[in-house]
Amino acid sequence: MMMRMKVMLVLHLMILPLTLAQLKVGFYSASCPQAESIVKAAVQKRFNTDKSITAALLRMHFHDCFVRGCDASILIDSKGQNQSEKVAGPNLTVRGYELIDEAKKTLESVCPSKVSCADIITLATRDAVGLSGGPSYAVPTGRRDGQVSNVNEVNLPGPSLPVSQAFQTFRNKGMTMDDMVTLLGAHTVGVAHCSFFSGRISGSGDPTMDPALVAKLKGICGAANSSNPDPTAFLDQGTSFTVDNEFFRQIRLKRGVMKIDQELANDRSSKKFVSRFASNSALFRTRFAQAMVKMGNIEILTGTAGEIRQNCRVFNPK
Fold first, then answer.
1. 250 and 271 inside one domain
2. What is the DSSP letter of 148?
3. Do residue 145 and residue 180 come from a single domain?
4. Domain that holds residue 59
5. pLDDT band at 14 (very low <50, low <70, confident <90, very high)
6. How far apart are CA 180 and CA 257, in angstroms?
7. How far apart, in whole angstroms, are the C-alpha atoms of residue 3 and residue 64?
8. Is 89's pLDDT higher than 70?
9. How many other CB atoms are there within 10 angstroms of residue 265's CB atom?
10. From residue 236, how far is each of 33, 164, 192, 200 by CA, in Å?
11. Transmembrane segments in this chain: where (predicted)?
């Protein structure tokens, strides 16, 4: 049994580098030289009128990679009895699909069936981060698109989980505690609907939240009406549209809106990372770029696996 386990481990270690080796920076330099500039132009156009697109793309990328890996399965529309990931509860508020469609349409007109939807998500997210003041970083490309999207496979960590339970999901995907804290730093540009944190502001409020923030959030959520039944609040009360380390400073001041965010600053296993990022902007920028690249490598399809979709919303005809 021990020998069998050793053989399996050796095989795994031999296969893993080969898989990742098929991703490389500039993968489309020969097959579609304009690929990255086309995606960036689409992101820039949207960003000019909607700074919140950065948070939307970060969320889309995360929700895609943490189900079947980074294979663009989140983009598939449901059809008939086949309910896709897009209609799962956690994904009902994911947005930005039309931006991916726009980039894909242009790419198909320039270099048909060359650039995957999975790579478009990855590149668009990177470009949006840079436009929002975050780090500029190279991302390897060469992903292929998945051919399965099932609503029942969506099992993402919720906003009220304790750090230890949330970390189980990240660890299952090969991520460390440092990676998790770093990636949750994406909340520096995010918003949350009141329904996600209402329990923390009911009554006298959560004692782990700054009373002034409790009062502010009660005002926001109390303004709900028929046209806006579930208002949103910024997760970073300081620099709400900038990818920086302000989020970590905020949660150290008990100004985390969602429970998981505040728990990062309180939990023994994660608070040291929060402290480091709160006091070192350069460190956060470096680690955020590294963690985004690492997340983008989760369970990827390369080579002849999967497909290159012609339309990001539907699988290619058989």
1. yes
2. -
3. no
4. 16-155
5. very low
6. 18
7. 36
8. yes
9. 24
10. 37, 23, 10, 16
11. none
CA distance 70 to 296: 6
Residues 225 and 208 in one domain: yes
> Are 187 and 213 found together in one domain?
yes
- Do 151 and 167 lie in a common domain? no
Tokens at 252, concatenated: 């150290």
For tokens 């949330």, the residue is 166
Q: Work out the mean pLDDT of the chain and round it to a whole number.
A: 92
pTM of the predicted protein model:
0.91
* Overall number of domains in the chain: 2
Query: CA 200, CA 139: separation in Å to the nearest integer?
Result: 38
Give the H or E element holding residue 234: strand 232-234
Q: Is 187 a catalytic residue?
A: no
99-137 residue pLDDT tens? 999 999 999 999 999 999 999 999 999 999 999 999 999
Q: Out of 131, 155, 179, pick the residue that ends a domain.
A: 155
CB 159 within 8 A of CB 89: no
* AA identity, residue 140: P
Cα 60 to Cα 123: distance, rounded to the nearest angstrom = 12
Catalytic residue among 12, 61, 63, 193: 63
Q: Quick one: which of 157, 59, 20, 175 has its CA closest to 74?
A: 59
CA terminus-to-terminus distance, the chain: 42
Q: Are 124 and 100 in contact (CB under 8 A)?
A: yes
